[in-house]
Amino acid sequence: QVQLVESGGGLVQVGGSLRLSCAASGRTFSWYSMGWLRQAPGKEREFVAAITWIGGNTYYADSVKGRFTISRDNAKNTVYLQMNSLKPEDTAVYSCAASPAVRSSYTATDFGSWGQGTQVTVSS
Q1: What does the pLDDT read at residue 82?
Q2: pLDDT of residue 112
Q3: What pLDDT was estimated at residue 29?
Q4: Hey, is 61 helix, strand or coil?
Q5: Which of 75, 90, 99, 115 is surrounded by the fewest CB atoms within 10 Å?
Q6: 79 neighbors 96 (Cβ within 8 angstroms)
Q7: Sign (positive/negative) of CA torsion 55, 59, 65, 68?
Q8: Cβ atoms of 82 and 68 closer than 8 Å
Q9: Distance from C-alpha of 107 to C-alpha of 51, rounded to nearest angstrom
Q10: At a CB cut-off of 8 Å and minimum separation 6, what does 62 contact?
Q11: What are the φ and ψ backbone dihedral angles of 88, each rounded to 5 degrees?
Q12: CA angle (96, 19, 69) in 5-degree steps
């Protein structure tokens, strides 16, 4: 099992920035990709970004390309999500997630384990 703990959420104005962090522990070597998912009220959980532990290849949802950047620090078993130019539609609970696969593209269902989540609210 892998344990994931997110931090860094909060309230920000439109156009602002936030940086989310995810500390992973446990059997992290069993998971080949790490990612971020989000779920807004009344909506399904959706894929935001992913990164492979080895190689650091990155993948993004079209809605966040050019604004969000995912990165990882293998030595610290930590994954980050830098979010810039935030929009009201980015408001959601953001969860860090782990996937046992490396894919050419990702959806939320590719991730088998995720953390409790952190709230991100973008006010207009």
Answers
A1: 98
A2: 84
A3: 62
A4: coil
A5: 75
A6: yes
A7: negative
A8: yes
A9: 13
A10: none
A11: -55, -35
A12: 75
Task: Mark 71-85 as b/e (b = at least 16 C-beta within 10 Å).
Answer: ebeeeebbbbbebee
Q: What confidence score (pLDDT) does residue 103 get? A: 87
Sign of the alpha-carbon torsion through 59, 65, 71, 77: negative
Residue type, 28: T
Single-letter code of the amino acid located at 105: S
How many other CB atoms are there within 10 angstroms of residue 61's CB atom? 19
Among 123, 108, 117, 87, CA closest to 7? 117
CA atoms within 13 A on the CB side of 110: 23
* Residue tagged 């992913």 (tokens): 50
Per-residue tokens: 20: 């989310």
pLDDT tens across the length of the chain (124 residues): 789 999 999 999 999 999 999 999 887 665 789 999 999 999 999 999 999 988 889 999 999 999 999 999 988 989 999 999 999 999 999 999 999 888 888 999 999 888 899 999 999 8
